Amino acid sequence: MAIANNFFNGRPTFLNDFANGQTLDNRITFLRSGAATYYDGKSSALAEQNILLQSNNFYTTWGLTNTSVSQNVSDPSGTSNNAWTLTCGTTSSAIKNIYQTQGLGIATYTISAYLQAGTINFATLTSTNSLGNSSYAAVTVNLTSGSVAIGTPVAFGSYSSPSATITQVGSTSWYRITLSFTTTAGVYAYNYIGQSNSATPSLNTNGQPNAYVGATTDTILVYGAQLEQRSTATAYNQTTTTAINNFIPTLQSAPVNTPRFDFNPVTGESLGLLVEGSSTNLCTYSNGIGGTGWTNSAIAYTASANIAPDGTQTASLLAPSATSAQHVTYGTAINTSSSTVYTLSCYVKSAGLRYICLAFTRSSGDVLHALSNFDLQTGTAGTAITSGNVTYTTSASSNIVAVGNGWYRCALTFAVAAGGYPANPFIIATNTLTASTTFPTISGDGINGYYVWGMQFEATQNSGASSALTSFIATTSASVTRAAEYPTVTATNFSTFFNNSQGTWYVEAQGGYYNGSVCDVFNVMNASSSALQRVSAQDTSTTSKVVGFTTGTVALSSTSNATVNGVGVSNKLAYTYTNSALVVSELGVTPLSSATNNSLPTATQMTIGNYQGSSGWLNGHIKKLAYYPTAMTGANLQALTGS
Asked: What is the pTM of this model?
């Protein structure tokens, strides 16, 4: 069949191209009593940044003042010959430092470096205006064993609001020093890492310790310098010949009664109108994983270590400690209910380790509900398993979705059969994609690990659904519920386009799960809100369904296509109804039909993305929804859905 020769020439009376237009037909009323998250396809935030070049090659691009450098010591992670020894190059009274120049605008910046005492114990971190004139920000650090301390940061001239931190790297003798400041005018800056002969040196007009007599045996150890435009340091990012300026697509929050036109954050594809039912994140402190409300075992936890998927610096770093152990972080126990499907999800990014495990189990270890490993390098979900009380958890599945800049949303779904035992959400360090019924024992280094954010634990809204995963809901000390969405068309807004005796619907949509009775794209209803026509996006994992009713009897019986895309993938479906037949085609396949001789009941309204406005939410996207007041031929339907 030549599809191009069978396109219908009529015009729709109700046309919603949600994917391309990102607007609702003004006849649609949209209600949602709270905010909800989504990707808008355009908003992003600065993520990893390091505008210093050759950030760990102090022999190239860096200037040396009375200093020699040699890459001959182990770095904070233990990698041999990857950190540098800075050695005093003169016995005369002189300033000793390394430096790199950068143009800085009017903004807030943070410069940082990893330092360790050598034969001397003091160092100074400085950013200074190349014009001098006492315009700089500086801080001196005391690295003396047992007396490690950060000095009082100072700022003058075009620099203001200085602050500084010192953080030990695991149990090593390395410390990360940060100096934050605001430039009140554009400057061409010299950024210095220098030796000092005191914890409180007098500084010259460039913010450097005044010249002093040193020895050619004076050394200090340095690794990983970074300069970024933000008020606090993020994880170190090594540069070579170019700066790093990464951006992350950011989750947005749609206000009350505002529809969400969602996008794939990685490809930029417009997914259309997102419609979800109410859901509750039962996991508290969702965005501070490893901190308040969480327990760490053999895990080094760093708060606000990186930029999270919502664009804020709230992602935690979880690094397995430098020991062979079971390295886990788990949250507060959550009660579960019998005969319910749950999904545990978390946003994760590798911070040096490739594999991670999500699990829902008792912290006491006596009941393991489900777990799955994930590969953060290839974006692959391993096979989910259940164990422990196997009569409690009957099945499990997992999936992983990229959300940009190396972040993934990992999800573990499982069905509770009976018992309703409380259990805890777990993050477990692992070194394989193959899950085990016992927690793995691996060796960490206290540095490499995972960035984590946005833990969510939610129950399905529809009995028997294959997944409970919905858009992210942030929590603090208590669970939080996202309100359901209600797109409707009623009264004259409906009657102005709908033909009760015959017509054709076209939809392009994807469901967030499959279920034998719900996951609806839309319902056409009578005045008493009884469904007359329904389209189910995912009737099963491989079928969708169109159902038509007359008053009191099923006059247009179920008609489904068995060649549809799976959950989460958009399908094109069109059907025609008359008082004699229901004809449907999906993805260009040969139309299926169901005959009837009954007259059609009167339709007065419709709901979009749910079943009768009370259940069966799509939890997915509608790219396009169109209605033609004329019955098309089977060939027309096949052409429409096959294009």
From this structure: 0.91
In degrees and rounded to multiples of 5, residue 639 shows phi and psi of -65, -40
Q: Phi and psi at residue 640, in whole multiples of 5°?
A: -65, -40
Domains of the chain: 3-32+485-642 (2.60.120.200), 49-245 (2.60.120.260), 279-482 (2.60.120.260)
Q: Nearest-CA neighbor of 203 among 189, 215, 192?
A: 192
Q: Residues near 335 by Cβ (< 8 Å), separated by ≥ 6?
A: 420, 422
Q: At residue 20, what are phi and psi to the nearest 5 degrees?
A: -90, -30
Which of 580, 506, 513 minimizes the C-alpha distance to 546?
A: 506
Cβ neighbours, 10 Å, residue 375: 18
Pairing of strands 355-361, 368-375: antiparallel
Decide: helix, strand or coil at residue 2.
Answer: coil
Q: What φ, ψ does residue 173 adopt, rounded to 5°?
A: -95, 10
Contact predicate 281/287, CB 8 Å? no
Provide the Cα torsion 466, 472, 473, 476; round to 10°: 120
Residues in contact with 65: Cβ distance below 8 Å, sequence separation at least 6, in sequence order: 94, 95, 96, 97, 98, 99, 194
User: What number of H helices and E strands is found in the chain?
Assistant: 3, 50
Q: Tokens for 258?
A: 């505002």
pLDDT along the chain (643 residues), means of 10: 63 96 97 98 96 96 96 94 95 93 96 97 95 89 92 96 94 95 95 94 91 93 98 96 97 98 96 96 97 96 96 96 95 90 96 96 72 96 81 83 97 83 92 90 93 96 77 98 97 96 92 72 90 79 66 42 62 86 81 70 93 88 96 91 84
Alpha-carbon separation of residue 397 from 265, 374, 621 (angstroms): 24, 12, 22
Q: Of 331, 298, 307, 293, which is closest to residue 429 (Cα–Cα)?
A: 298
